[in-house]
Amino acid sequence: MLLEITAPTENSLLAAGALDGLLHALRDQRATIVGNDDRYSLELRISALTEAEALFIATARWRDASQRQGLPEWRLARSEVLTVEEFEQERDDTDILPPVSSGVSFDILGDDLLPRALQDSLTGLVNRELFADRVRSALADEGPEATKWAVLVFDVDNFGSFNQTEGPAVGDRLLAVLASRISRIPEHIMVARLGGDEFAVLARRSAPGDVEKVASRLLDAIRAPVELAGRKVSVTASLGSATSANMSHPDDLIRDAAIAMCIAKADGGDCFRRFDAGVSVDVRRLDFDADPAPDRLAHVLLLERSALAANECQELEDAAAIVLGEVCAHTGWRVGHLRLVANTGEWVEATPIWHTRGPDYFKAFRKACDALSLGIGQGLAGRVLETGSPSSTIDVATSTRFPPSIAAAAASSGIRSGFAFPILVGNEVVAVLEFYSSGTGRLNDALSEVMAGVCSQLARVAERSRARDALARTEEKYRIFADSAPMLMWMCDVDGQCTLLNSAWVEFTGRPLEEELGEGWMAGIHPDDLARVLESFALSAEKRAPFEIDFRLRRADGEYRTMVDRGNPIGIGDFFQGFVGGCIDDTDRRRAEAAVRDSETRLQAMLATAGSIITLLDADGAVLADYQGTTEGLGYPAGSSTGRLGMEFVHPDDLPRIADAFAQVVAKPGLADPVHLRVQHADGTWRWVEAIANNLLEYPPVQAIVISAVDISKRMAAEDALAHSEERFRMADDVGPIGLWHWDLVSGERAWSDEVFQIVGRTRSETGILTDVLGEVVLPADRVELNKVRSSYHAGQPISRFQVRIRRGDGEIRRLRFRGMVLRDDAGKPIAASGTMRDVTDFFINVSEIGDSGAA
Questions:
Q1: Which carries the bigger pLDDT value, residue 165 or residue 77?
Q2: Are 320 and 433 contacting, i.e. CB atoms less than 8 angstroms apart?
Q3: Of 135, 120, 128, 223, whose CA–CA distance to 176 is shortest?
Q4: 299-305: long-range contacts, CB 8 A cutoff, minimum separation 24
Q5: Would 153 disulfide with which of 19, 177, 257, 596, CB 3.0-4.6 Å?
Q6: What would the pLDDT profile of 79-108 be if each residue is shown by its tens digit?
Q7: DSSP for 648-714?
Q8: Edge-to-edge, what's the strand order for the sheet holding 428-437?
Q9: Under 8 Å CB-to-CB from 442, ≥6 apart: which residues?
Q10: Backbone phi and psi for residue 334, each to the nearest 5 degrees, phi listed first
């Protein structure tokens, strides 16, 4: 096989002599490098059995060699596996790089084949292939110093029985814990899972006894109890080692360590054995129809080949086609077949994946099996589906489990015994390997354990296939979701080149998709924001960390809108591929918040100007907020009352009444009736306020009880003064003399009682007094009011009371209060007015002066 790797790079990235060093490192592959203006093509010649194996080995060695030469990372653009004849023909036809031809194609930027081919999915350790390549590289690099390397191989004793007793999930957990422990042993260079419960360690020998030290630490780490399913479990392992002294080929190092491990297991396990070059192990096959019990090394080889197939193949059918042949060659069984479990889980379907000696062998039996699907409990595969465990029969023809057509075909084809093994993903049977033999062989523990390991390797392929299918469905859902989402969604590579934009982005910018992809998206960023956006992206790409940034993006109508952009890194393991993210138009929200802030500022100013006391209370009466009017009205610093109970400020005499009123407010949403109460000023005095409560607890924007109050202390003082004055007037009415008067509105005659003359300080005999006693004594300033009242009498208007000032006969000025009423005839015409007169000078209080005197 020949592998061509096309890797674009700049000539300036390659230091002088670097290409020569790379070619020297790859000398065993007869490597050549062809370059043109903007790319290099690395051609490697690899000896391999399959195309996939050639691809894996060549890419691993190419990468390792380039890293050791200190070359910059080459991003693999394309690789093609060609036969030497195909490649030479292409080179003869054209001088340019060969075009894509048939073979295995691998694009590392779009697929995760290589990472999966290098790593064990259960433990996270490297797998057999990468470990073997690392051993070969280590030995090749050391040259004469190659004797300083050692490989240790071990597997868990009686793991097959443990797995069957405890279940696959517990077994997998045990292997994961052991993998974590051995990874922490400081002497190792690399730890790998070779397959099943078999592990390998590459270590450097710096001094005699180093290998024994590592072996001792490995066995101690494995023996330590492991807590599984709520209880502690202890296991042991058989450990073998081989060193790089007297090596004929680097690949023999792993094989020799595996042979030493088999010897340790034959010696009872839980021990360490070194490989002895004089040991000879016969690996020739026996007649397994009679006794399917091959030697231990053959088991190791079968597991190796099964693991290789699992790593090479992407589909279970492809891997099973290889494994069926390997198992049949290993055991001597004549027929191998793969059955898949239907989606319903109730049937085991036949597949075209068979292994026989040729297409015409066992043709009738194959035809009978292909014609039927087996239900739960039917045949060996149905039994495996039912129990989740291996199943076997010594005679298919006489077994009652098989449909008659299959049993008859088995008898006519010379098939006797049968064996079936589950391929499990978790606890779910996804497929069944079934084998048939012309002998009457039986399963033993060793073979059952090996087949469990083989099936676990195939289970990895099935699990990967499921994961790929799920990923494909997820990607399709993501694209549908992205185009359905109202937000602007995008995806870019590590250089900021946009690779995906959803329809919302294209609709927002109004530009064709092809103009937005690549660097086109930058054209819509506001010039003042672009440098900041690129800098933020570069920092996040360097750290491979999520980012969030806001910037202005030009909309289709030309308006720049403020976007909030969030991005997350994407990739597989350490392979960073770029970012995926989305933008939300935040313009309207920010404008709304600004409007709210402006509105709040205006409200604060209005409240401060109005002088109102505004307080927000919760349902328990605690102060949630107080506004500027509270500070100015009651003298408390802004915010100082927050958290305190509003009742703390109420006068003790008013507290019961106000508490009852507040309870009614809490019980009923909306406005309550005004109440008057006294609250304490910051200076310790009490102020009367009129308060109105509005229960807005259920109104989401407020969720509080709003108390609005005004200071009415002066008004209450004035009302108290007026009440006091009225009381004094009443007292005056009770103790002072009362004069009576009468005025005939028709004739104009007036009549006065003796008390009138006593009040005004005149006698009846004085001239003028008898006709109009008031006309002589009323002060000039009050005569206008007096004449107005007299005119109202003539007009028939009711006059209850009025006051005038007079000058008594002794010169003293007194204040008189008059009360009167108008008398009417039957037609309603005013005919007379009568009333009383009293001196109220001693009891009069100037109300306006009292109103200016302040709080009571």
A1: 165
A2: yes
A3: 120
A4: 299/330, 299/446, 299/447, 299/450, 300/198, 300/258, 300/262, 301/330, 302/326, 302/327, 302/330, 302/450, 302/454, 303/194, 303/195, 303/196, 303/198, 303/450, 303/453, 303/454, 303/457, 304/128, 304/194, 304/195
A5: 257
A6: 555 655 555 554 444 333 333 222 333 333
A7: GGB-TTTHHHHHHHHHHHHHS-EE---EEEEEE-TTS-EEEEEEEEEEETTSTTT-EEEEEEEE-HH
A8: 374-375, 347-355, 335-341, 428-437, 417-425, 391-393
A9: 292, 392, 394, 417
A10: -85, -30
Q: Please choose, from the candidates 124, 149, 131, 126, the residue with its C-alpha nearest in 3D space to the C-alpha of residue 139.
A: 149
Query: What is the DSSP-derived secondary structure letter of residue 383?
Result: H
Beta bridge partners of 689: 677, 711
Q: Estimate to the nearest angstrom the gap between the alpha carbon of 847 and the chain centroid.
A: 73
Least confident piece of the model among 108-112, 391-395, 561-565, 592-596: 108-112
Degrees, nearest 5: CA angle 465-355-160? 65
Helix (H) or strand (E) segment spanning residue 481? helix 445-484
Nearest to 731 by CA among 598, 845, 626, 583: 845
Tell me the residue length of the chain: 856
User: Tokens in use for 201?
Assistant: 């360690």
> Three-class SS of residue 289?
coil
Are 454 and 302 in contact, with CB atoms under 8 Å apart? yes
Res 385: pLDDT: 93
Q: Is the pLDDT of residue 631 over 60?
A: no
- Write the secondary structure of 312-355 as one string of H (helix), E (strand) and C (coil): HCCCHHHHHHHHHHHHHHHHCCCEEEEEEECCCCCEEEEEEEEE
pTM summary value: 0.34
Task: List Cα–Cα distances, 854 to 721, 843, 850, in angstroms.
Answer: 11, 21, 8
Q: How much is the average pLDDT of 794-812? A: 79
Indicate the helix (H) or strand (E) that contains 405.
helix 404-413
Residue 117 burial (CB count, 10 A)? 20
Q: Which amino acid is at 213?
A: K
Residue written as tokens 């933020």? Answer: 536
Query: What does the alpha-carbon distance between residue 372 and residue 374 come to, in Å, rounded to a whole number?
Result: 6
Q: Using 50, 70 and 90 to split pLDDT, how confident is the model at 652?
A: very high
